[in-house]
Amino acid sequence: MSLFPDPQGALGFPQPLCEKYRPRRIADFIGLAENKRILAGFASKLRNAALVFVGGSGLGKTTMALALAAETQGEIHHIPSQKCTVENIEDTIRLCWYCPHVAGSFHFVIVDEADQMTEKAQLALLSKLDATARPPQTIFIFTCNTTEGLEKRFLSRCMILEFSNYGLRGELAALLAKVWCAETGRTLEDAAGFHTPNFERIAKECNNNVREALNRLEVELLAA
C-alpha cells in the first residue's frame, strides 16, 4: 500500500484509517505478490471472465476487485453481502447489456460474500457465466471466505484466486509504522518520550488482518 490517502469521504468528514489508506491500485497492496502479478497481467489483456477471490476477512478481496476496475476504467456494479438474489442478478445483468460509460472498457459485477448466495442465485448465474447468456464486455468478481457453499458447476466457470495472509506480518507492521508517522507527523526516531505502539505485536494479535490492524492503530492514535 502506498500512502496516498483519501482524507475525506463524500460528505467531507474524516474517514477511518482503513478507508483513508485503502489501496487504490493493484501495486499498492501489501503482500499478495502472486495475485498482484496475475491481476496486473489480466488488466493488460481484459476479456470476459468470472473470478472468485477466496480468503479470510480483511485481506483486501473487495478492495482488490475495486482497484482492478478503477485501473481499467471499468463500470462497477456492486452487489453487497446478502443481496445476491435472483432479482438483483437479473437487474444488474440487464445494465451490462448497455455499453460501458468509457468506450472500450468493461462492466465489473462485484459480488461480496458470494458463499452466502442461495442455490437459486447460483443457478441463475450459471448461464450468465458461459456462452449461453453471457452479457458482453462483463467481468464478474465474487469474493468469499470459503468456497464450501458454492456449487461445483458454478466454480467450474470461474478462475479462483486465493488470498492468504501468510508471511504478511513484517509488511503489515511496516505499513502500520508508516501510517503512524503520517498521522502523528513524527518519525520513528522521535519515539522517545512519546507513546509509540508495538506495530509487530498489533499485526500478530490481529492475525495479519489489515483492516483489523488499522482499526487497532486508530485506537492507539487516540492515546498518542
Spell out the key features of this protein.
single chain, 224 residues, alpha/beta, Rossmann fold, five-stranded parallel sheet, 9 helices, elongated
Would you mind describing this structure in some detail?
With 224 residues, the protein is α/β, with parallel strands linked by helices. It folds into 2 domains: 32-163, P-loop containing nucleotide triphosphate hydrolases (Rossmann fold); 169-222, no CATH class. It has helices at residues 17-20, 33-44, 61-71, 86-96, 119-126, 152-155, 169-184, 199-205, 210-222, and strands spanning 49-55, 75-79, 107-111, 138-144, 159-163. It has a 5-stranded parallel β-sheet with strand order 2-3-4-1-5, sandwiched between helices. Helix 4 links the parallel strand 2 and strand 3. The longest helix is centred in the C-terminal third of the chain and has 16 residues, at 169-184. The chain is elongated, with a radius of gyration of 19 Å. The two termini are 23 Å apart.
- CATH homolog superfamily of the largest domain: P-loop containing nucleotide triphosphate hydrolases
Mean pLDDT reading: 90
Low-confidence stretches: none
- CATH fold name of the largest domain, please? Rossmann fold
The value of Rg in angstroms is: 19 Å
Strand order of the largest sheet: 2-3-4-1-5
Order of helices and strands: HHEHEHEHEHEHHH
Report the biggest beta sheet as strand number plus sense, adding barrel if it closes. Answer: 5 strands, parallel
Number of strands: 5
Quick one: overall form? elongated
Mind sketching the topology for me?
Layout: H1 17-20, H2 33-44, E1 49-55, H3 61-71, E2 75-79, H4 86-96, E3 107-111, H5 119-126, E4 138-144, H6 152-155, E5 159-163, H7 169-184, H8 199-205, H9 210-222
Parallel strand pairs: 1-4, 1-5, 2-3, 3-4
